[in-house]
Amino acid sequence: MEPTRTQVTDWLRDYEEQGYVVLEAILSADELTEIREALDRILASSPTGRNEFEGLQTQRIYTLVARGKVFERLVEHPAVIALVERQLLPGYLLTASQAIVLAPGETPQPVHTDDSFYVIPRPRPEISVSTMWAIDDFTEENGATEVIPGSHQWGDDQLIDNYYGDDSLQLPKEYAPLLEPLVMLAGSCAVFAGTLVHRGGGNRSKRVRTAISNQYCEPWARQQENFFLSIPRDQVARMTETLQEMLGYSIHPPFMGQVTARDPKKVLDPDFDNPLK
Ligand SMILES: O=C(O)CCC(=O)C(=O)O
Questions:
Q1: 269 shares a domain with 215
Q2: Are 149 and 20 in contact (CB under 8 A)?
Q3: Other CB atoms within 10 Å distance of the CB of residue 9
Q4: Cα 69 to middle of ligand 1, angstroms
């Protein structure tokens, strides 16, 4: 359902002040069931993470957008889009799409920001906007994402470089009291700036904590996931035009993204005549 103008104004105020906003319980029970069933089918054959950052007791499913219509719809959720389109330029892209399932015993992730690999001095506007959908209730005990409110405005001098899961690096002790867990009901979605300092919490409960994170970036920024290579073209051709554009089948004016001087969407036509063949 489309959010009202008042809702969007309130969300934007929180997002801009704190660097994040929680959209409470915006998925229905039926939608949650459909998502959980689709995830269960994939999780059975999904490995655990390769390092502290991915989480050694965490299963991640990458390129989630291409693993079921229900995940396509989530990327285009109107409440999320209402915020993303007010933060990023027209033609914004999907940069990452994944499920993150923390098993009991998982330890806290290293603190990081989601757009640190765009090496541009801070403070600066975010180059990406992240979402964290709670598919299970997020609690302090089960590893709710932890954020430092207001840290989206920090400069480089306030950040400590422990982004990439180097487990020799500990949480700087001055960060610890600032971290706040995003406690929220299943079906809620936290939307936060790529510049916000955060981490996945530790799971001290007896059950898994399931989340989905779709991330969006400026149309001129390189995407984290290379969707051109991962998603077969005939599958992209069956997606909505908006989603095709978010995956990168679009032009950022005047000509970023062109394919031999043509619109990349033409490549989705089975009769596309590739001059290089
Ligand atoms: O799982 C979470 O709560 C956060 C994960 C995260 O921030 C990431 O992997 O970039």
A1: no
A2: yes
A3: 10
A4: 23
Residue 126 alpha carbon to ligand 1 centre in Å: 17
Confidence category of residue 161, pLDDT binned at 50, 70, 90:
low
> What are the start-end ranges of the H helices in 182-253?
227-230, 233-237, 241-247
Both 135 and 239 in one domain: the answer is no
Compute the distance from residue 244 Cα to the ligand 1 centre, in Å.
Answer: 25
Q: Which domain holds residue 180?
A: 5-225
Atom in ligand 1 nearest the alpha carbon of residue 98 = 9
User: For ligand 1, atom 9, which residue shows the shortest CA distance?
Assistant: 54
- Contacts of 104 by beta carbon, 8 Å cutoff, 6+ apart: 57, 203, 204, 205, 206, 207, 208
Tell which atom from ligand 1 comes closest to the C-alpha of 143: 3
The answer on 248 and 155 residing in a single domain is no
- Are 243 and 113 in contact by the 8 Å Cβ rule? The answer is no
CA distance 145 to 135: 13
Residue 251 Cα to ligand 1 midpoint, Å, equals 30
Q: Could you tell me if 171 and 67 lie in one domain?
A: yes
Ligand 1 center to 100 CA (angstroms):
7
Cut 0.85: pTM above it: yes
Atom of ligand 1 nearest to the CA of 144: 3
- Pair (40, 144) in one structural domain: yes
**Which residues, 6 or more positions from 52, have their beta carbon under 8 angstroms from its beta carbon?**
107, 109, 110, 165, 166, 167
Residues 74 and 124 in one domain: yes
Pocket test for ligand 1, best of 50, 109, 183 (most atoms within 8 A of CB): 109
pLDDT in tens, 96-147: 999 999 999 999 998 889 998 898 999 999 999 999 999 999 999 999 999 9
Question: How many domains in the chain?
Answer: 2
